[in-house]
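Translate structure to sequence.
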């Protein structure tokens, strides 16, 4: 892997010589993101530091604060961080305030009097305690009585076993979080059992939307993107489709005349936008705006699409892949869930280039392998990241850049919708 060339954008990013960090969203019943669990491995090893829980906790906290910046990683939402019992017993520093942190007590904790007193002291300060990978036992009642959240790993469990666990916790004042949720059927089953928080990758899977037809307004969106991604795009047809959608036209011109692009001359028409941007940059921009308007899907889906697109764009040159192509692959990797139909049906109506389609559906080719690596990073699967040849020294700065960029895009969307001026200045991209 060739070392990444330094440029102005990279120079502004935090240096991460021996650290890596990822995050996984915590979702509520409406699939709204309410927090992020922080996941860590060091670049010097592809193994977690599970043999030293105190060191692992210290490293996550240090890197989240000093290497990446907590606001960059989680914004205004709380970080969920694993804490060993020993870390708490030793009364080691907790440098994050109670409003910004949920303490996840690891499953091997033993409810000694000393540990219980320390946990009570933390809750009095306002910290929330979550019991990680927890299985009910009468001997663990003292921990449950202190905690606010219990995390139940549902992977490999029958619905009967999960129901028994949920029933056992009903006598306590705790929220139940189902983790390792991989299918929408599991989410729906846990929801019925009283779980109110969820963690897993089921929101990005096609089955979330299976057997459903897209709403009428989606047809127009797919029609527009089909024309944008045709082998020989009809520029006149694209212009007409965009102009027919007043809101889309307004937002497109608003974005083009903002600091996001910093174009030398104001753009006054769709035709002028086509000339100044070219079809590749225009199709990515229009796709981004179109997908942002789908507001009846979990916000984490759109955020995931943006993150994958931006990260892919940044690391693409190291894979010999065109950045705009990789942006498309990342952006469309959750298109099935956003649009509301299986990916196969989406691709029937939107003929993407074969290499892009294979990357999205089969994770094949350079773009597909790169997408698989980005997904592995989302899971904290560093072996999976390295398996596809993705250097963490390249990925980590790209990930931080994407976090900042996504926040800027969201600010731009809010500004465009309100007709005001953007409050941030994301670096030029798409």
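Result:
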């Amino acid at each position: 892997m060739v070392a990444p060339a330094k440029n102005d954008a990279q120079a502004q990013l935090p240096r991460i010589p021996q650290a890596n960090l990822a995050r996984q969203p915590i979702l509520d019943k409406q699939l709204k993101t309410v927090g992020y669990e922080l996941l860590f491995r060091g670049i010097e090893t592809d193994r977690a530091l599970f043999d030293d829980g105190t060191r692992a906790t210290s490293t996550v906290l240090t890197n989240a604060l000093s290497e990446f910046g907590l606001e960059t990683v989680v914004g205004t939402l709380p970080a969920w961080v694993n804490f060993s019992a020993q870390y708490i017993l030793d009364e080691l520093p907790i440098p994050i305030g109670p409003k910004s942190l949920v303490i996840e007590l690891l499953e091997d904790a033993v409810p000694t009097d000393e540990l219980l007193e320390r946990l009570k002291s933390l809750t009095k300060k306002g910290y929330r305690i979550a019991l990680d990978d927890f299985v009910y036992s009468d001997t663990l009642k003292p921990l449950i009585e202190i905690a606010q959240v219990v995390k139940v790993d549902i992977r490999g469990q029958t619905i009967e076993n999960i129901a028994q666990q949920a029933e056992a916790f009903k006598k306590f004042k705790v929220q139940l979080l189902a983790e390792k949720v991989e299918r929408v059927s599991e989410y729906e089953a846990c929801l019925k059992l009283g779980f109110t928080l969820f963690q897993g990758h089921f929101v990005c899977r096609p089955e979330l939307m299976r057997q459903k037809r897209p709403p009428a307004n989606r047809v127009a969106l797919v029609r527009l993107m089909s024309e944008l991604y045709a082998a020989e795009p009809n520029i006149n047809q694209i212009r007409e489709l965009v102009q027919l959608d007043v809101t889309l036209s307004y937002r497109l011109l608003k974005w083009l005349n903002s600091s996001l692009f910093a174009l030398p001359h104001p753009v006054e028409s769709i035709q002028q936008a086509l000339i100044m941007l070219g079809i590749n940059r225009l199709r990515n921009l229009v796709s981004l705006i179109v997908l942002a308007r789908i507001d009846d899907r979990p916000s984490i889906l759109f955020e995931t699409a943006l993150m994958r697109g931006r990260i892919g764009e940044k690391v693409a040159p190291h894979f010999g892949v065109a950045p705009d192509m990789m942006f498309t692959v990342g952006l469309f990797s959750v298109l099935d869930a956003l649009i509301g139909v299986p990916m196969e049906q989406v691709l029937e109506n939107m003929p993407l280039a074969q290499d892009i389609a294979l990357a999205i559906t089969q994770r094949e080719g350079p773009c597909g392998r790169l997408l698989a690596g980005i997904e592995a990073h989302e899971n904290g699967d560093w072996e999976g990241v390295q398996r596809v040849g993705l250097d963490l020294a390249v990925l980590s700065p790209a990930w931080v850049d994407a976090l900042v960029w996504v926040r800027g895009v969201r600010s731009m969307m809010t500004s465009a919708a309100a007709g005001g001026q953007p409050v941030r200045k994301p670096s030029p991209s798409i």
